[in-house]
Amino acid sequence: MKQSQLFTKTIKEIPKDETSFNAQILIRAGFVDKVGAGIYNFLPLGLRVLNKINNIVRDEMATISGQEVLMAALTPKEVWQTTDRWDNFDALFKLVGNDDKEYALGATHEEIVTPLAKKFLCSYKELPKSIYQIQVKFRNEPRAKAGLLRGREFFMKDMYSFHANQADLDQYYEEVKAAYFRIYARLGLEDLTYLTYSSGGAFSQFSHEFQTLTEAGEDHIYICSDCRVAVNREIIKEHNFCPVCQNKNLTEAKAIEVGNIFKLGTKFSKAFDMKYMDDNGQAQEVIMGCYGLGPSRIMGTVVEVFNDQRGIIWPESIAPFKIHLLSLKENEAANEIYLELIKNNIEVLFDDREEIAAGEKFADADLIGCPYRLVVSAKTLQAGGVEIKARPSDQMGIIPLNQIINKFSH
RNA sequence: CGGGGUGUGGCCCAGUUGGUAAGGCGUCUGGUUUGGGACCAGAAGAUCGUGGGUUCAAGUCCCGCCACCCCGACCA
């Protein structure tokens, strides 16, 4: 991508109606744009990041046999009445269509996925199955805040699994847990993310959240350093010790919930009368699990966690581009490098803008935060190459022209 | 939903005891620059959130409403 053609440009001023760091810097760098409280447009750079997060999620869901679907976002009132949530789910955005027909914008999809799965999963031979989607969710939050961390419209990966018995759900649940940790590891959040015990409702003692440590987080978790898990507030009120090792010496920390998984049991299969035929020809209730993860919230979290005074420091796995190539009055030479990188499928943002001061290009590169910065100038060409610098470091070096592709093509 | 704060060109903002809107960024034109948001000259761009009221006169004072931010409550 040539920066001269990019739809957005960076801005110097901090937007006055944002105080959260992730929103300020994502807006300044041109990743997102604010529409209203908790409502954002995703712009070319931001969408690239979001898509990369989504693709990591897809990749890991595939390893646990999750099949991607896309369910309706406009959901009829009746399904919510079936589970008694039409009047009890405060955050539902409700709307009225023709003939006074009422709908809710999808806030979660148990009410849609259960009738859907009922149409296809009828026999023990067809279980277990697991389907997921990545979709915009709508929740009428009483108070949207903190940029991408709590929006009224946000992206969610929600997966639902269907099992013939509890043991099968239990086993799958553990597989999901492991897949989630692989996702956080690929996002660079492994060390900061804790499996966190929270209350489980009627069907299991606990559910689990995945909490990433950051001062920007709105949750308080209590970490057990012995077994590297945490408990949330409601659990510590009940138990006041680590549910794994009974350790009472827990450390409080602020965190943001980047995922949660839940054993639903038969709550929804009962409500929608979803049963399967077992090998004795007997109808049995289907056991369900659900597994949420918020890609847009994760994008905000990554920004909160990886940054410095100058801008974002994207992990390579989700950076909008791997390389930010800056031409300082050497567009011809830089363009050759640009074309060569493109030819080798190396993602590059090429700052080919003319009449732009070098300082501005450096400032933009730091703000946007691609992992590597390559500078082409008369000076570097004289030295036989281009300057290379990793985003978080101050160390610069010259890399010969004929080694660039080799350096980045793995 | 309670409490607090803020609304002035696309963005950030100044605006005194009420007297007809200043500056910076960005944009456009010309020139000078060219390794950390460079400089000079000129230009375009504003129903001052919105509706009402007071006044000869309202960005400024009064009342209602709306939007956004923060704290709290809430967050299957």
UniProtKB/TrEMBL annotation:
Catalysed reactions, semicolon-separated: tRNA(Pro) + L-proline + ATP = L-prolyl-tRNA(Pro) + AMP + diphosphate
Keywords on record: Aminoacyl-tRNA synthetase, ATP-binding, Ligase, Nucleotide-binding, Protein biosynthesis
Record has Magnesium as a keyword: no
Keyword GTP-binding attached: no
Molecular function terms, GO-annotated: ATP binding; proline-tRNA ligase activity
Taxonomic source organism: Candidatus Falkowbacteria bacterium CG1_02_41_21
Cellular-component GO terms for this entry: cytosol
A GO BP entry: prolyl-tRNA aminoacylation
EC class of the enzyme, as a word: ligase
Protein name, UniProt field: Proline--tRNA ligase
EC numbers on record: 6.1.1.15
Coiled coil regions in record: none
Residues of the Aminoacyl-transfer RNA synthetases class-II family profile domain: 33-315
PANTHER family assigned to the protein according to its UniProt record, in alphabetical order: MITOCHONDRIAL RIBOSOME PROTEIN L39/PROLYL-TRNA LIGASE FAMILY MEMBER, PROLINE--TRNA LIGASE
